[in-house]
């Protein structure tokens, strides 16, 4: 079936749709991405245009279709141990927690398909072993959370993973699963995943020592960034660390945090 072309007007309507649904500002020029990701949904519902599909979404007659559209338009690929300096800091904090016999709680607030969550869990399992530690991964997309819970990934996502972690925490796929890896069940059972929309009041998830919010703010406008960051920082313990993407900054967004290093902030 040939790809249905998306008009400029329809694209603008989907920009507004994803902003209203997830607070995400989709930049101009992403028509190919929108049409490429949603074309199968048009075919599935036997619709002739993106306007027809938008009408279906706005009718709210099928909540699962609404979730599907949000999933398709917000999913981003990621990989293990992205930005190593953050994991180096995490290791130091875990060593400190071990010496003080303190519980450690870490939140990956936009966990996507789970690579960040399992990277965090590997560091904590390595340093703290069976001691008290928790990792929570949240995302707006049910589809990526399902993938995260399965812990099953293409092997190339692990190119940055320390080799000893690969041996200790991952099972290498054989036969029909060749070229893939599975996170060991004992590690999968130590982490939690939950659907959370960062643009809405947060559920009761408690306070954290470290919060990761990396490579997400680029999709928000300034006011949304301020609201999201403020919401997350209310869940960060005094002295806790807030980690963002290396190309991001809290300048003009929040002035209550101390800069420790680029992309690393600490709460007073």
Characterise this structure:
- The chain is α/β, with parallel strands linked by helices.
- The protein has two domains: 8-74, Chemotaxis receptor methyltransferase CheR, N-terminal domain (Chemotaxis Receptor Methyltransferase Cher, domain 1), CATH 1.10.155.10; 84-267, Rossmann fold (3-Layer(aba) Sandwich), CATH 3.40.50.
- The protein contains ten helices and ten strands.
- The protein has a seven-stranded mixed beta sheet, with helices on one face.
- Strand 4 (170-172) and strand 5 (180-183) form a beta hairpin.
- Helix 5 packs parallel to helix 6 (115-128).
- The mean pLDDT is 94.
How does the SSE layout of this entry go?
Elements: H1 8-22, H2 31-45, H3 50-58, H4 63-74, H5 84-100, E1 104-108, H6 115-128, E2 133-139, H7 142-150, E3 152-154, H8 163-169, E4 170-172, E5 180-183, H9 185-188, E6 191-195, E7 208-213, H10 222-233, E8 236-244, E9 257-261, E10 264-267
Parallel strand pairs: 1-2, 1-7, 2-6, 7-8
Antiparallel strand pairs: 3-5, 4-5, 8-10, 9-10
